[in-house]
Amino acid sequence: MTPLTGAGEQRGAEVIDEQSGARAQSPVDGFPEQASPSEQTTIQIPAQHAAADAPKRPPTFEALGTWTLAHGTLLRRVALGVAISVVAVTGYVGLQKLADAPAEPGAPGNTAQPQTSSTPDEAAEGVRRAAAGQPVLQKMADAVLNESRGSFLSTVDPEAKAFDEQARTIYTNLGKLPLATFQLRYVSDDTGALAPDRQAELGGTESWLAQVEVSWQLTGYDTKPARETLPVTFVTRDGTTYTASFSERFVAGQRRPIWALGSIDVAEGDDSLVISLDSQKDADDYAVVADRAVDSVSRVWGKNWKQKAVVYLPAKQSEMEYVLGAQPNTYTQIAAVTMAELDSPQVGAPVRIVANPKLFEELGKQGRRIVLTHETTHVASTATASPVPLWLAEGFADYVAFTAVSVQDESAAKELFKAVRAGKVPRTLPPPEAFAASSADLPQAYESAWLACRLISEREGQSKLVKFYRAVHASKSPTGLADAFRTVLGTTEAEFTADWQKYLKRLAGV
Ligand SMILES: [Zn+2]
């Protein structure tokens, strides 16, 4: 799926990740230290394809409580120059889950495990601390909405110098965002989360860690607020309770809001909002590409969606992983992902496109446009909360991307054609596991899914392809796919598969 043929930008590069053991850490104060887990990445031999990592989506809504991210293992072989993407559905991370999860290795003060109150006295203490903490949070949230910097900073512990600096950046960041709402809600106590030496360091009469739900909604982009859980350190001194950190004891897999990771630049296009942590990048340039992607998607999908895209541009891969709540190095070879910024996947959740800075940059202009169009298709079709099979979600996203940016079949389906010419015609439409990062046939999975969608479009017309997608997406029935094959396309999956196999052979010249 190299889209760069003929443009003088053919990359043909393969990235081999050395899987460095570096782990990202969260210092007690200040921004999380940005480890560089992929420093050892080397560019090697030619390859054609891009990898994606597609987690299995929860089969039912009820399963959400226990469903967590399954981003898979690192893929050793990956190519640049193709739409590398994934539908990343953020997993539900309940507070109990946080308490059960291992603390980030190396994070300060992680020797003590969070506990929940178990006796009436402890419960009463928890209520008392919540009553002390919530007003502080309320003051912060009000200050953000009222644009009162002084009030916001007055909630910060005067002794917490590093956090004071971080708080100033956070306040400035939030001021750059078109916020419709911003709320902080005290959720629970993490009794015992702060080790005695940390408590001694904080001083005051009392200090503790609480989990706080932060929610914010972007005017013009979000129909529901984004939600994340932040660990907030409180300290009481001289009778006043302050905040002393927003990043203490982050556990692996806990997502972090982009505005809490460092200073951001915000660019607003006609239909897109780009939030960048990379001061070297011109966020406006990316807004132009995102605007084009929105337009390209609307041309195929129609205008019956919000027609807006929010793009996050981290400066480092580790920041991307923080935003996604992914383990370090998970996304070493993924150029961009689409994620719902909510604890549970659902229609209407705010969806973000998150770029992996290094790979995204290396894709070149045309490649970035393809990737953004692919991801924006996922946004339009709410793929983060959809029952459509992955072959249809990914194939359709590539169909839209390659409709916007013309690509030669021979290069776009290189791996698949090679297999078909060797007599290995896929026996079925690619199953979900074929899209896992560990899948050996990942390029073929994307290529064959794309050509399945293209076949539908060529034979029935593009509008039928969209209708088919929408029918499967809207279906609540386990037979939704079979029903759509019958009612929209007048065929069966088996018949279609046979036609598609013939189509692949014909395209490959077999
Ligand atoms: Zn995708």
UniProtKB/TrEMBL annotation:
Residues 110-120 have a biased composition (Polar residues). It comes from the Bacteria. Residues 1-41, 103-130 are annotated as: Disordered. This is Peptidase MA-like domain-containing protein. It comes from Kribbella orskensis.
